[in-house]
Amino acid sequence: MESRRLAILCSHLNPAAPYPARDSILRVSDCNSSGEEKVESSNLQNDCVFCKIVRGESPCLKLYEDDMCLCILDTSPLIHGHSLIIPKLHYPTLEETPPSVVAAMCSKVPLISNAIVKATDSDSFNLLVNNGAAAGQVIFHTHIHIIPRKEHDCLWTSESLHRHTMKLDKEASELASRVREQLCRRLPEEQLVQPS
Tens digit of pLDDT for each residue in 1-53? Predict the structure, then answer.
């Protein structure tokens, strides 16, 4: 246990790559156990189960770790091998997570998911982010679920639902326009798709 804490502490003191710039708007927790540089915020981060895991204060079964994120087995799995990729810094939602952190997490998906699929003798996997309470997010520390799947495992009840073909009508066109309008507020003009 002591060597594990030392390894985590060393990864914080001497990371292989710099952490992303800290935006004062974001609620960021260093998740470090030294207590030297605390970010002022609510006590939610002190109570965040993922922050406690990163600090070495809560047990976990770690599958992978680098300077930006770690992957652990979910303690309440939907299926054998259900795992979580979590950033080492505290971001409550995907919108509040810097793109560089999301990219670091996502870049590990092929490596980790392949290992999980092989280790569980699965056929494939689902990649899932529950973002916000209405979407089922329970722990408000951004994380990605890797859920190994086997044919006919009947994990999702929605798999039995019949999907409907989208009608290319006025309602669909208006939805696309509203989404593009929201994107215009956030993206440089050269990245936007012009309606055809």
Answer: 445 444 433 343 333 333 333 333 333 344 443 333 333 333 347 889 999 99
In the residue annotation, 141 being an active-site residue is answered as no
Two tokens, residue 144? 């990605």
The whole-number pLDDT of residue 5 equals 42
Task: Work out the angle at residue 137's Cα, subtended by the Cα atoms of residues 134 and 139, and round it to the nearest 5 degrees.
Answer: 145
CA-based torsion, 173, 177, 178, 182: positive or negative = positive
How far, in Å, CA of 110 to CA of 124, rounded?
A: 12
Please give the Cα distance from 189 to 17 (Å, whole number).
31
Residues 6 or more apart in contact with residue 103 via CB below 8 angstroms: none
Q: Which phi and psi (to 5°) does residue 87 adopt?
A: -75, 155
Classify burial at 23, counting beta carbons within 10 Å of its beta carbon; exposed 0-12, middle 13-18, buried 19 or more: exposed
pLDDT band at 187 (very low <50, low <70, confident <90, very high): confident
Cβ 69 vs Cβ 86: under 8 Å? yes
Find, among 164, 95, 106, 162, the residue nearest to 135 by Cα: 95
Helix axes 99-107, 109-119, angle to 10 degrees: 30
**Which value, to the nearest 10 degrees, does the dihedral of the CA atoms of residues 161, 167, 171, 176 take?**
90
Overall residue count recorded for the chain in this entry: 196
Q: Which among 90, 143, 152, 164 is annotated as catalytic?
A: 143
Query: Does the pTM exceed 0.90?
Result: no
Considering only the C-alpha atoms of the chain, give the largest distance between any 2 of them, rounded to a whole number of Å.
62
